[in-house]
Amino acid sequence: MVDVLAAPQQAKSDTALRTLVLISIAHWVSHFHLLVLPMLFPFLKAQLGVGYIELGFALTVSAVVSGLTQAPMGYLADHIGARKVLLIGLAVGGFALIMLGVHLSYSWLIASAVLLGLANSVYHPADYAILAAHMDEARMGRAFSIHTFAGYAGGAVAPAIVAALVGVTGGLGALIVAGAVGPLVALVLIAGGLPDASAADREVDGVHPPKQNIVTPALIVLTAFFTLLSLSNAGIGNFGVVALMGGYGASFSSANIALTAFLGFSAVGVLAGGFLADRTRRHGQVAAACFAINAVIVFAIATLNLPSPLLTAAMAMAGFLGGVIAPSRDMLVRDAAPPGAAGRAFGIVSTGFNLGGIVSPLLFGWIMDQGAPHWVFGASVVFMVLTVLLALITERSPQGDSEEAEARVLQS
């Protein structure tokens, strides 16, 4: 009898593990692709004869497209199937980079940015819809943390991989090889049997849950929170290397090591944050504390000419603290989402990342063109302080909505 009962449980566990691994691989690709163009800024600037503000405009275009399509992709993920949406996104993102490698020009750069923005809009709605449908409730925070860790890891290794590809194949070859990763991973997901998540999965005895208002006050506050998170990190992630080289006398290699430390320890912090997310409801307070310390560290980087070892250590600590909050951030969204609307909820709040992505490339590109690289870090400090203040609001808003919902369930 014990074996009979254990077999379905083991099968469910194996399916959940396989799903988490496959989704995490896809998320790795999404963050890797996001940093391919910024890591090639020196090459693109020289080949295209443009300034950093023109290159930043390409990232803004990508963010605008992703922001406009994020919520619609959440709708598609909830209604036609998150698996289909995710596979198409991987293929489109890969094609965008391959296309630019074959036809290098500024107009093709903008076209590639449009397709990259469209591809990027699918990952959060599709990934989280599948995870919410297939992960164990008691381990949801850790599942989110592993998924986010994979994305951070993709970004962390992007500088080294792109630099290696440029050394072996040149800038154009780097674009083509990096792009080919997308469709290859899509084939891996198909071969691995990635499960789907759609409206049909939420039906009980053929009856679909009633429609609910998805745009709640809690999700609006979380969207603003995501926007500030994006602005806090985008300057360092996209312009950190050129800022350290231009304003601090850092070499290309030492600047890349510092950025890799920032991104790599962000990934480590995400794993630590997963355990916190499963053990506390004070997610907003965790975010506020981490970003308050981060603001102090980044302020030191902005104002002091740190030697290379200390710079790398400071960047690593800032990355770690930034990563710790990510699973708690995702749990706030998941708790605030109406039943059966995880794809749309994550699509809406992830628009905040895109709103930040629209502003940050132009802002930080303008800062670099004005010859003020120190303000890449200084502006990040300002956004971190604002993030701390809003984190304390998110602590109350989503949790309050959750408690009201629990009270209604008890009364009924």
Compute the number of strand runs: 0
Indicate the CATH topology: Growth Hormone, Chain: A
Q: Helices and strands: which structural class?
A: mainly alpha
Top CATH class: Mainly Alpha
Rg value: 21 Å
What's the helical proportion of residues?
over 70%
Give the biggest sheet.
none
Q: Could you spell the SSE succession in H and E letters?
A: HHHHHHHHHHHH
Instruction: Give the strand content.
Output: under 5%
Number of domains in the coordinates? Answer: 1
Total count of helical runs of at least 4 residues:
12
Arithmetic mean of pLDDT: 82
Note the gap between the termini: 36 Å
CATH homologous superfamily placement = MFS general substrate transporter like domains
> Mind telling me which CATH architecture this is?
Up-down Bundle
- Low-pLDDT windows of residues: 203-207, 398-412
Label the overall shape: globular
How do the strands and helices of this protein lay out in sequence?
Elements: H1 2-39, H2 41-48, H3 52-102, H4 106-120, H5 123-134, H6 140-191, H7 217-248, H8 252-279, H9 283-303, H10 308-336, H11 342-369, H12 374-411
Helix pairs in contact: 1-3, 1-5, 1-6, 3-4, 3-5, 3-6, 3-11, 5-11, 6-8, 6-10, 7-8, 7-11, 7-12, 8-10, 9-10, 9-12, 10-11, 10-12
Concise synopsis of the structure shown:
With 412 residues, the protein is mainly alpha-helical. It has twelve helices and no strands. The protein has a single domain, classed as Growth Hormone, Chain: A (Up-down Bundle).
